[in-house]
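Honest question from a wet-lab person: if I give you the sequences of every part of a complex, can you actually get the arrangement of the whole thing, not just the pieces? Trying it with mine:
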Amino acid sequence: MLLEGSYSLDDFLLFSEEVYWRLFEVHNSAFWPLIPPALIAAALLPYLLRAAGDHRRRAAVLVTAAAWFVVAWSFFWVTYATINWAAIYVAPLFAMEGLLLLFLSAQQGIWARKVRSLPGHIGGVLLLYGLLLYPLQGLAMGRPVAAVQLFGLAPDPTALATLGLLMALGRGWRAGICRIVPVIWCLLSATTLYALGSWEAWPLAVAAALGVFIFPRKGADAQGAAEP
Amino acid sequence: MTNLGNKPWPPHRPCRRSLLLGAAAAAALALPLPRAFADVGLRQVPADGQRLPAIGMGTWITFNVGEDLELRKARRDVLASFFRAGGRVIDSSPMYGSSQDVLGYGLEKVGQPDDLFAADKIWTGAGSEGLAQAEDSRRRWGVPRFQLLQVHNLLAWQDHLKTLRAMKEKGLIRYIGVTTSHGRRHDILEQVMRREALDFIQVTYNPVDREAEERILPLAQERGMAVIVNRPFRRGALTAALEGKPLPGSVAELGAASWAQAILQFIVSHPAVTVAIPATTVPLHAKENVEAGTLPLPDARLREQIAAAILSA
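Yes, you can. This is the full assembly:
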């Protein structure tokens, strides 16, 4: 083992696992006024997903867009940049996703009417994973509640929930474009966690794969509005 | 704010703040080097004969804790333990995230030894940014000046060496150098060493990564360059792999109490090596690392025994 190549993935990391997990505690502490709105947003999204009507679905995408802007500024620009200089290059990517979602929310006739398709079910599971299970996962791993990763404050649950939302609701190329940044982030985060030796990399890698490969079949949703 | 452009190396007139800090630190840390260093453990810098403790401290990853106050205090304790044991050489880089800021926090809290050997690097692809980056790094450390500035991983080394040489001529820094790690770019390093007048080089070297023995370390001796060794424990992988395995009796007889100390003895026993810079987050390990530099050095036969024992582990 000792004679294996001396250059490994973890050599690209600037920080230790301890520092990485504690970063979310520091982040939550610094931006605690944002926690209540983040929790409300997380509670609201499943309701907006299940309720009928384009305006509710647009509202869900608007809430998600706001989450990406907040994460871009608070997490990448302010918190993560203290231990990783590359974070300031990711912040614009997250802000761009916020803009793309804003653009998407203004589109007409691209929303699936039914979410009970296979992509819809997978999207629903991903959404719940991002909003609920991912934060609980940290607690189950023994990390303190103060370090919980929340949708709208931390990038992983935000990306996971967004992918779920887009799978369940979004149809056509515009929604497809909005998947690119969440998929990229899931891959980057999975790589980081893998380098840190955490199994928590794998769900993110699976989510990225789902985001790339699972799309509604053309014409499968008979009640869905046609792509303009 | 001190500016690199108007504070020459000699003579240094310490400001009131650094005098107060120095006095507090001397009282708190008993700053004169421990007795053990009076005879052993000190290495000469070939350029001017300055003597340095053989074990310093690196800050890659370990000091990058951001704004986390609890971890900053923990690193302050590492620094205090390192200084108390007699450690003086600390190495960092603008590439290491918040490490420079955390070092600055620690140095402000525990005080700077008068003979602190502050080593940092220039890490930018733009030659024109080297001087500004050096000043930014110095401000983050909170030190009056760096003793050594190195070109990080040979990035834009031609431009940066010009800048560093000019700084040295003005007395703003004492030494200049270049670095590599992981055994990379040794061919270019060799060319630079043959072509340029360097005071220091920095390479990876340990009982497992011995490529530097072939050309780089002999060339450093030939050219009169001091050598800083990084990644002595392969970022902890070596000591982790050896945990629980007994030390060979002959190594223990030299006084090594742990594999970490045996590895450091191996490294600094190479005649070309000036300082090894292990990193740690544990105050006790910082002390034990420094103490390893004061232990008797293994001879060639014992060096090979250490290497063989590690490779067979």
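Two things worth pointing out. Residues 1-31 of chain B have pLDDT under 50 and may be disordered. Chain B has one domain: 51-311.
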